[in-house]
Amino acid sequence: MTSQALPAGHSGEADAAWRQWARALALAGPGVLDAAWREWEPKPEVQAIRGPEAGLVMMRARTDGGGARFNLGEATVTRATVRLHGGPLTADAMGTAYVLGTDTAHALHAAIFQGLLADETQRERVLTEIITPLEREQAARDAGRQADAQSTRVDFFSVAREHE
pTM for the full model? Predict the structure, then answer.
């Protein structure tokens, strides 16, 4: 998943919006963000602060969804932090991204678009051209998966009554 520190004074609603945008960037298909960045004009200068670099994180879970915590296992993630300056930006902006897997280009481009979201003059454009299409695509994919899962649902009440 992607993560972005919020500037001081942001509300819980703003935090939820940032998490939603980070999710869209983290779940973007391979090459989608790369293609979007290649077409983005004018580009700000990008300075890598950290990474992109791959590593492991420990995933935690809860028994019964809310009980005692336990270590589920490790997952490979790639993170990147960038500073954007110049070009269309009104001030320097920072972007940070964490994505599952080892795709360094994905992490770098997600961090760049997080940084662009941090700049108020670029936010609407990123939302319109990048985030909204990604969210639509992901919602369609999620709906398809949910429909596939629903098709395997078994009504045990009906099954039990068949034998009577």
Answer: 0.77
Nearest to 26 by CA among 141, 131, 123: 131
Angstrom distance (rounded) from CA 65 to CA 55: 27
Q: What confidence tens digit (pLDDT) does each residue in 121-139 have?
A: 889 999 999 999 999 988 8
pLDDT tens profile 19-49: 999 999 999 987 899 999 999 999 999 999 9
Phi, psi at residue 120, to the nearest 5°? Answer: -60, -30
Q: Which segments within the chain are labelled E, that is strand?
A: 45-62, 69-85, 93-100
Q: Which helix (H) or strand (E) holds 7?
A: none
Rounded Cα distance, 123 and 97, in Å: 16
Q: Is 120 helix (H, G, I), strand (E, B) or coil?
A: helix
Phi then psi for residue 114, to 5 deg, are -65, -40
Alpha carbons 90 and 79: distance in angstroms, whole number = 26
Contacts of 122 (CB under 8 A, 6+ apart): 88, 89, 116
CA distance 35 to 47: 19
